Model the fold of this input.
Amino acid sequence: MRTSRANILGSCMKNENKMNYDFSNRIVLVTGGTGALGRAVTSAFIESNATVISSYVVDKEIESLKKDSKPMLQLVKADVSKEDEVEKLVSDILVKYGRIHIVVNVVGGYLGGKSVWELDEKIWDKMMTINLKTAFLVSKHVVPQMISSKDGKIVHISSKTALKSSGYDSAYAASKSGLIRLVESLSEETKESNINVNCIMPNAIDTEANRTAMPTADFTKWVKPEDLANVILFLCSVEAKVITGAAIPTYGIG
Done:
C-alpha cells in the first residue's frame, strides 16, 4: 500500500505540537503536581489515560486541580522532603494500586541573588533539600518495587544552570548539578531491571510566577510547561526505551 507524500505531511502537521500516547493501566506519581509544570504534567498524563497520584504540600494550591479533577486523579498531601512521608505515600499507593509504573518528580525551587560569601547556610540547605534530597527520597522508596516488576520510568527536573552557572546561584546550581549525578548513578544501578531514569534541563519556564519575578524578560524565549510535559511523556513512553541516564536539554530555541 502506497502512502502519498501529502498524506504523510498532513499527518505530521496535525501532530506537530503534541504526540498521542496511551498510558492506560499505568499508575503515575507526580510529586509537586500543583505548580505550573506539575499541573501541565498531571493534565498531560490524564489526557493520555493514565491514573495519576499528585502530591502537594499547600492546601490552597490544589484548588485549580480540584476544579478539573477527574476520576483518574488522586490528590495526596505529602512533604516529599521528609522520608517518613515519602515512605507512607509510596506504601499507600502500592496498597491501593499494586504498582507505580512512572514517577515524575517535579518538586523543586529557586533561591538566588547572593554571592557565595553572602549566602546564608539556610538557603544552601533549602536548595539541597527541595531540589536534591526530594529526588533521592522519592527514588529510594519507589525503585525497589520497580526492580521487582522489572519495569519503570523515572524523570527528574534539573536545569540548564546545572551545566553552567551565571553566578549568584551557587546553591541552586549545585543542587541541580547533583541531581544529574543522582540520575546517572541510579540509571546504572537499575539498567538491568528495565528501568529508565532521566532528567530534563529547562532554562526559564513560562509561568505566572516567573513573569512576575522577571517582568522585563522576553517571555517569547521561555519554554511553556505544556511543551516540557510533552518531553516528559515521551521519556515515559515505550518509544524512549533506549534512553536512560540522560540529561535532556529543554532550553527552547529562542
